[in-house]
Specification:
Blueprint lengths: L10 H11 L1 H4 L1 H8 L9 H43 L4 H39 L7
Helix pairs in contact: 3-5, 4-5
């Protein structure tokens, strides 16, 4: 989870980085099945669930912060382009750049919604598997 996205300009690279950051959420069921003991296998379910919860929370916070940061960066860039277009309305390349940034901003906002759904799904699965071992505060 040490991956940090510093550049929000390339949306494809952004999506790939977010996808990599979501691996623990995507593999939550198999991770829980290997980490949580069954009745015949007496491992420490509480510490396994607690450790996994910490990893999930860190990942959730990191991804949410990255997405919100990129939304802010893109919104600021969009504002700058609108100001430039106000002074130079006939520049077609400026209009294209403005539309491109608007599209990117919408996609980033959708990504924030997707992130919320991923977090809800992960939390539900975590609760179902870990409720008898660990209850987060």
């Amino acid at each position: 989870m040490s991956l940090v996205i510093t550049e929000c300009g390339d949306y494809s690279a952004f999506q790939e980085a977010i996808k990599n950051m979501r691996k623990i959420d995507d593999l939550i069921i198999s991770t829980l099945n290997t980490a949580i003991p069954t009745d015949s296998f007496h491992a420490d379910g509480e510490s396994a669930c607690k450790d996994l919860y910490k990893k999930l929370e860190e990942g959730n916070n990191q991804r949410t912060n990255v997405i919100k940061n990129c939304i802010t960066v893109t919104a600021n860039r969009l504002k700058e382009l609108k100001e430039e277009r106000g002074t130079n309305a006939v520049d077609i390349s400026l209009t294209k750049a403005l539309r491109s940034e608007q599209t990117k901003l919408r996609m980033l906002q959708v990504e924030l919604t997707v992130e919320d759904m991923v977090q809800q799904r992960t939390a539900k699965v975590f609760h179902e598997k870990c409720r008898k071992y660990y209850k987060p505060l």
